[in-house]
Amino acid sequence: MKRMLLSLAALVAALSLQAAPVCPETESIDTLRSAVVTGTRVAMERDRLPAPVSVIGRSRIESSDESALMTSLMEEVPGLFVTSRGVTGYGVSSGAAGGISLRGFSAASGRTLVLIDGHPQYMSIYGHAVADEYLADLAERVEVTRGAASVLYGSNAMGGAINIITRQPNFLGNRVNFKVMGGSYGTWRGTVTDQYSNGRFGLTANFGYDRTAGHRDNSAFRSMSGMLKASYDLSAAWRLSGDVNLVKAYSENPGTVERPMFEGTADILRMMSWLSLENHYERTDGGVNIYYNAGRHEINDGYAAGGKPQPFLFHSTDYQGGLNVFQAFQPWTGGTLTGGVDVKLYGGNAYRNPETEIYADHKKLHEEAAYLLAQQLLGPVTLDAGVRLEHHSLYGTEWVPQAGISWLPWDNTAVKFSASKGFRTPNLRELYMYAVANENLEPERAWSYDLTFSQHALDGRLNAELSLFYTKGSNIIEVTVVEGKRANRNVGAFENKGVEFSADWQVTPELKFNANYSYLHMGTVYTGAPVHKAYFSGTWSPGRFSANLGVMGIKDLYLSTGDNAKTAGYVDFKARFSYRATDWLTLLVRGENLLNQSYETMLGFPEPGITVLGGFSVRL
Question: Both ends of the chain: CA-CA distance in Å?
Fold first, then answer.
């Protein structure tokens, strides 16, 4: 295994010396024909990529006026749903919201992977995403692979991958953006971003603040975040870049309506950093990336009426660091080969009473992997195949294959099919923590199959995509009772299938419509994944004024499972207005749940009623 990894690393390094240097081309990111990098590591036209990928550009993220990125993504990506319990903020631990579900695969269980700039970013000791860490103001664009993405990203991408690509200046000079909004339930949001570029050196600095008193007693939230990202072009072909991102969030858990909680708080600090050396030549592209993520969490589980305050806080720390090296090259006309090596180390500890209640004592695990992808263009047909060899310190070797084909029978039509394997290794919590821990668990596995049709019309002003998917998984980890003992065991199996549709229509330069719909059939029912999800929005921008009206419709969202399963459905009507008063000042107003509907996305946690925020944005 080590010899194979070293050989592939040497091959990658050698390939980076080929060909004459050229400047990389700028690609569009706002249409269904845009180039994406999440599925292949290098830019590839989406119609040529067999797997379905959703791309959300900066303009859509910014126009939502959301502080939490996942809220914006839920509107734009079919099959993606995020639970919530308040005006802003998600929290962690018991009663936390921010459960990210993609095609029924939950990021809370580690089955959907969240990445920042291509690096895995989640709480490694529990194996789940922390939704408060992913902020809208930091993202330049987001690419969501719907379906298994384990060939490139290994464990935790069994259901898909959400790659958040952070902002960097694409202009010369210096620009400062300052935004403040406030309104219902004592909510305030503020961000300031400074971007500078002189052609070779680029810098992005951001600071954000978000807070609310909450719409229920004991439901306050506040967070502060900061990002510093820099890049320097060493030559026309080589770029050095790095990023440091910090988020500190405090949230309160009010408990369910039937069982209110007191002193239920979570105080978290998350840090992400990376350093990258990239190369872009005429016939080869690649890079060497080093990353390190860490977190600290202090949880007060609180108490219900008649109970007592907790004598100790729950503490946990986690880390995840690694190296990935990849190089893509074109050895012949129409052919692209991409080889890569990944190394990841992760671990952490958790305790309540440091003397008697130690749940994970500095546990450490590591993974190494090598992968190879091949694409071949044969006229209107693109063939795609790949394989990953993953080695885990506990589970040994795992082979992960994928294959696909895309066909462009006409200039404006694409038909695509893909089949890919996904897997997930048990996390530290499942292996070592609490009474249900089981050190004999095995990895989960699944296969995803996608058939996608896309159509472009009216000179690219009308775009539509339809995907049919089927996923079958085995070895799923569940808590079961055997001989009176509850424990994590590999006993589960599931079959998910469904339909996803998305479309956008630029009717005139001033008027645009967007829509998406997803239907999910779950063989095994999970909470936080609606059967039907639909979103429709229209944006009218005549001159200095802009209005956006959106409607989110949810049906058969499971709040609980079992014999007495409870489902929810609702319609959330949203409106956003902006007026550019001067070249540098824009006035903003937005409203949510304007129909004042009473609904829940988590059992016992009602959502707020009509919520209105107003403010302004300054660009200098």
Answer: 54
